[in-house]
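In practice, a research group might receive sequence data for several interacting partners and want a quick structural hypothesis before committing to experiments. The following worked case mirrors that situation: the sequences arrive first, and a predicted assembly follows.
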Amino acid sequence: MALALRLLLAFLVIGSCIAADNIDLWPMPQSVSHGTQKLYIKKDITMSMVGSTYSDEKSILKDAFQRMVDLITLNHVVDGINPSSSVLTCVNIVVHTPEDELSFGADESYNLTVPTTGDPLYAQIEAQTVFGALQALQTFGQLCYFDFTSRLIELNSAPWIITDRPRFPYRGLLIDTARHYLPVKIIKGVIDAMAYSKLNVLHWHIVDEQSFPIEIPSYPKLWNGSYSYSERYTMSDAIDIVRYAEKRGVNVLAEIDVPGHARSWGVGYSSLWPSESCREPLDVSKNFTFEVIDGILSDFSKIFKFKFVHLGGDEVNTSCWTTTPHIEGWLKNNHMNVSDAYRDFVLRSQKIAISHGYDIINWEETFNSFGDKLDPKTVVHNWLGEDVAPKVVAAGHRCIVSNQDKWYLDHLDASWEGFYMNEPLKGINDTKQQQLVIGGEVCMWGEEIDASDIQQTIWPRAAAAAGN
Amino acid sequence: MALALRLLLAFLVIGSCIAADNIDLWPMPQSVSHGTQKLYIKKDITMSMVGSTYSDEKSILKDAFQRMVDLITLNHVVDGINPSSSVLTCVNIVVHTPEDELSFGADESYNLTVPTTGDPLYAQIEAQTVFGALQALQTFGQLCYFDFTSRLIELNSAPWIITDRPRFPYRGLLIDTARHYLPVKIIKGVIDAMAYSKLNVLHWHIVDEQSFPIEIPSYPKLWNGSYSYSERYTMSDAIDIVRYAEKRGVNVLAEIDVPGHARSWGVGYSSLWPSESCREPLDVSKNFTFEVIDGILSDFSKIFKFKFVHLGGDEVNTSCWTTTPHIEGWLKNNHMNVSDAYRDFVLRSQKIAISHGYDIINWEETFNSFGDKLDPKTVVHNWLGEDVAPKVVAAGHRCIVSNQDKWYLDHLDASWEGFYMNEPLKGINDTKQQQLVIGGEVCMWGEEIDASDIQQTIWPRAAAAAGN
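A structural hypothesis for the assembly, expressed as tokens:
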């Protein structure tokens, strides 16, 4: 596995090439068998879709095929001469369903066969959905390498018969554009690399206390909280990112983290702060606070079409609520203490999100504090340690595992071995409860990284988790 | 300047955007005047060549124009509506010479005007050569920024009248693919960034004692000295890199560093080593050594068309020559000491390079040891300190300045201020002698960097030197 990881890193970050005599696939498919014959990839290898129900009107497969071909050349000039035999001329892709709207739980299974006989000789991919076919193309690409003798792309150890399906429907990576702004191009690069590792959810932690980089048309002064005039995303940028991700089989999960982690909101609308001198959490006493949340989620719902939205809810320090007179008064009038207010804030925000069609994900503090009050469909996002997931699923909630000691990428001392060995189902023995663990997520918090080193910090450890 | 550098860094590495109300050009053109009017760049801005002698058959200008347009959007979606006035619809480029073979000393001067009146309103570039026009397009791009209100590319402070020409004909950056292999894609990325800063020579230190990554058809076992099977460049890769660079106005200077820094050569041909146990410098006593040098330079001459080749000559530890019996005997028979042998090796290599049509560049130790014997056309490449350049030009040789204390990028403690303040003409007062300083070069030696951090280590300090 060390070798596989090293090679994967080479692919992702350094762009080097798989050595000719190794067989390395990552993540390892569910079932792999192979032979011993070398094949040559025809220089102008083509893609066909004979037998498909799917029409590829959006050019999802066609573009993915071209990206795969570009990737396996690794910028080398392929100027060898096609030999007369053992030449793979085509990849035929059979997709059984016409739909290509990416959604949670989409069937990503595939079969990939690379035979050694046939005239013409072609590889065959079979998948229920176009998103399974995308995964198959990633696997096919990993079989190929540029050979410095033939000056051709070659493929060793054919015939191959590979059957694959993901273990979990949610395989996430968090990026954080609030602590450091990440240009659109960098985010797209992260999405490219996620696709190589078959990760399928980009958790976009868009805003936080430090900055509010995204445009919210309903409340246009919110992005006054951006770091600078230019460190911003327009709604069109967000749509562009979502479309880019979807074409690669990657869902985008948007997060607004309330009521804590939201100080930047008040730069544009200072009444969201408890006071000028005490600026977070968001003012629980004002309807305006929830109107703004409603505006954000309304705008989000037009562009972030993933089933889930993430509402945060972690690390809420409520001291400003008790030291600000008008909030203190409001708490008294409503016979609430700050714990009640925190709970009500989260639940009220959940209702708003549900009204916009979302299922909710919340960080685990919400479950730890008032799990029995959460909307039953809430997905609890673990991060503090590995003990909570069994409790979450025992309570009937779904869970995403991101225990920080193993899967926080900003923990530079978290080893790739630790990333690999982390088991999302640890301590969960009941099969039905196991199914409530929808997957895991590695988290690249942005305090210590920026555009210049985000990829180098994410990989290869994120890939180790992807192999879990 | 700090601001200019910060913005340049943003452009190069982070890809952020120039703030709307600043005027920042880098390197600063020779002459700049401007007004106060804002213009909008038409969304489908076009390029024309009315009045040009140049035909752009190789699509040098057309591709550069498209790259410039892509760059100024910084991946934002430009979805604003073109206003009815103050819209720049076209950049007209007048190139006065039909030739587009890049060569040393090519005229890179240009005039760029951006008027505020005219129907249609268009910017005008005028240049002697296509390479001057490329520089003008870089400057034009730096005037433009994405505006988050109009959702258009805008250009402030028009009208602009800019006249520019480089101070030096040689503005170099060294990369080193022997200490760490750099994938072709990474090298192309470095070339892209050089073009943004108007650097025009990529000094490719291809091989060294650690590895020999490039294919030499005349002696095909030389690349047995590569780090691995895949960490290699084919001749086609090298041609691809040279063409890529030339299309961006960047020359590629190839180096083989002899007789020291060549231990890797012997992996494929061990008789190039003095002995199995004493492996460098190259064996001065064998004709085969010079046959291999001839083979390499013969192959180089087919692909590296720059006027110069770099023959190294630095840091030669000759102890293996005196401790290896057959070389010791050869020295005696030829009545030479090791200093004589070092001199003869360098001069014999120079003659071979000249026979293949090259002018030679050598590191300064050759000048320091036997400057009066060097071919008169030798360009002496300074690196040890700032004192040698005056001596070199006083002796009538040309010089490139790279004093390591200021312009070695692997010196992480060398500040950008130091890069900026370094003066290639320091201590040279005679005008004719000043003209012998053909320029400067910043050096990104590869021991401590690889593909993952080369760009981050080169910039922004290299840009500071480019502003010199």
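Before designing any experiment, note the following. Chain B has two domains: 2-164, 170-466. The radius of gyration of chain B is 24 Å.
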